[in-house]
Design goal:
Layout lengths: L5 E6 L6 E3 L6 E3 L5 H4 L9 E6 L11 H14 L5 E5 L5 H11 E2 L5 E4 L12 H13 L1 E2 L2 E2 L4 E5 L2 E4 L4 E2 L8 E2 L7 E3 L3 E3 L14 E2 L7 E5 L6 H8 L6 E6 L9 H12 L3 E6 L12 H9 L2 E2 L5 H11 L6 H8 L9
Parallel strand pairs: 1-4, 1-5, 5-7, 7-10, 17-18, 18-19, 19-20
Antiparallel strand pairs: 2-3, 6-16, 8-9, 10-11, 11-14, 12-13, 14-15
Helix pairs in contact: 2-3, 3-8, 5-6
């Protein structure tokens, strides 16, 4: 299924790019130009691999929209020269970053595979080698001379997921990510199996568009039993706040007491856009299904359907600079743009 491909490896930071100094025990970033020395197995791949690194690798906890644009810029600059891209990234915020990149890059018809590891490359029991090698293989897959995967994916511990469907679920296990609302795009075992029927279909005639404006005047508000009016009042008074991803219970349910509905209405009247997403890692918002979400629906709160919080934030940052009317924003938000929702 694969022919020779040219792959660009982009190292942004994270555990995968670390090696242990055996004298001090401290972790330090290694030079990715020496990648073949650290992972000689890469020589067995038929693909040609080039590397580029952030001048100063960053911990993924420090990731922000400026870095998302920087990663997109590297891809845009090299887009015509490579068949696929592998982004090495810290696992903690990988789902946020990879989801955002999917929105930034419109008409993508090449693979971009995000990966990382729980243990450094130099560690005896590392998961870094398998994650990296398989990510390169996936980015290089071709059928009849054309790339097989044409979207942003996230590969970790034998599974490739659509990136904007993922959430980090475990800080200690090698199986750190999950995608409960969309099946794995590919699975690595004795054979590399790709579920081609659920892959994004590319339109190869359309030119790549890179959206370089993101607006981060947004926040996530997680509801909990006992949340009080004063707290929400303070939040909606935040200067410059443009959007709230509201994490509700179950299938989009929230407190339906008058004080809560009044504050949501006040926020919407101030022009703050509110998207309803579920706190559950699987399942979908179905506003109006229960009485506790009917009033939110009537007010014009946007349904996030089965989108993840990570993708919900990314989609909001992406759409806000377009300066759409609230009605148009709602219509577009509730439409799947990159396979992020059903």
């Amino acid at each position: 299924m694969s022919n020779n491909s040219k792959i660009l490896l982009i190292y942004t930071g994270g555990t995968i790019g670390m090696i242990k100094d055996f004298e001090t025990g401290a972790l330090k970033a290694f030079n990715f130009n020496e990648l073949l020395q650290k992972i000689p197995e890469l020589r067995l791949l038929e693909h040609e691999i080039d590397t580029v690194s952030f001048e100063e690798p960053i911990d993924s906890s420090n990731m922000n929209p400026e870095y998302y644009i920087k990663i997109a810029g590297i891809i845009e600059e090299n887009y015509d020269n490579y068949d696929g891209f592998v982004v090495l990234h810290g696992s903690d915020t990988m789902s946020y970053s990879a989801s955002a990149l999917g929105f930034i890059l419109e008409n993508l018809n090449k693979p971009i595979i995000y990966t990382g590891s729980q243990l450094p490359i130099g560690d005896l029991r590392t998961d870094a080698k398998e994650n990296l090698i398989t990510s390169i293989q996936l980015a290089g897959l071709k059928k009849n001379g054309k790339t097989v995967i044409n979207e942003v994916g996230l590969y970790f511990e034998y599974k490739l997921y659509r990136a904007n469907r993922t959430t980090k679920i475990n800080a200690e296990h090698f199986q750190a990510f999950s995608s409960l609302n969309y099946p794995a795009l590919a699975q690595s075992g004795v054979h590399l199996t790709v579920n081609e029927s659920i892959l994004k279909r590319p339109n190869r005639r359309k030119k790549l568009i890179v959206h370089k404006e993101l607006d981060n005047n947004v926040m996530v508000l997680k509801l909990f039993p006992g949340i009080n009016a004063q707290l929400i009042q303070q939040i909606i008074q935040i200067k410059g706040l443009k959007g709230i991803v509201l994490e509700t219970y179950g299938s989009g349910n929230a407190c339906n007491e008058d004080w809560f509905i009044k504050l949501i209405k006040e926020a919407l009247q101030k022009g703050i856009l509110i998207v309803n997403v579920t706190q559950c890692i699987g399942g979908s918002v179905a506003m109006g299904h229960y009485e506790t979400s009917t009033r939110l629906k009537r007010l014009g709160v946007i349904s996030g359907k089965d989108i993840t919080t990570e993708a919900a934030i990314a989609k909001m940052m992406y759409l806000l600079p377009k300066e759409l009317s609230p009605k148009v924003f709602k219509t577009i938000y509730e439409t799947s743009l990159r396979g992020e929702m059903l």
